[in-house]
Amino acid sequence: MAAAGAASSPQTEFAGVTALVVDDNDFVRDLVANQLRQIGFTTVQTAPDGGAALKVCDETPPGLMICDINMEPMGGFELITRLRDKGRTGGDRIPTIMLSSHAVPEFIDRARQLEVDAFLVKPVKKDALAERIRTVLQKKPG
Hints:
Layout: H1 2-6, H2 10-13, E1 18-22, H3 26-38, E2 43-47, H4 50-59, E3 64-68, H5 76-85, E4 96-100, H6 105-113, E5 118-121, H7 126-139
Parallel strand pairs: 1-2, 1-3, 3-4, 4-5
C-alpha cells in the first residue's frame, strides 16, 4: 500500500530534519519556528539575519532553511548568494524556502535565479508551510 507511506504522521515525518528559520522580525521568526515544531520538527534553529545564519550553516548545516528576504545587515538574497559561493546551494545543498511580505515579480525572479526551492508569502499558514516543505524535501537528491 504505497499510499500509507505517503501519509506519514506529522509527528514523525520531519523529526529527523534540522530546520533553520532566518528572519529579523522576532515575532515572525518565533511564529515560523513554533509552526515547524507543531508539524513535527524536533530541531529548529533560528537566526536574526543572514550573517548569523551563515555562522549556523558553517557549524551545522540544516536540512531545511526558511529565510526572509528583507533583513539588515544581511538579507536573504545575499545569504543565498554567499552560501552558493561556498557550495552550499545548488545541486546537493540546503533546501531553501524564501519568505516575503511581498510577492513582487522581481523577488520571485531573483529567487528562481538563485535556485531557491520555494517562495512563500507572509503571513505563513501552518498547513501551507507543511505542504511546501514536503514538496521541497521530496525534490532533494537522496
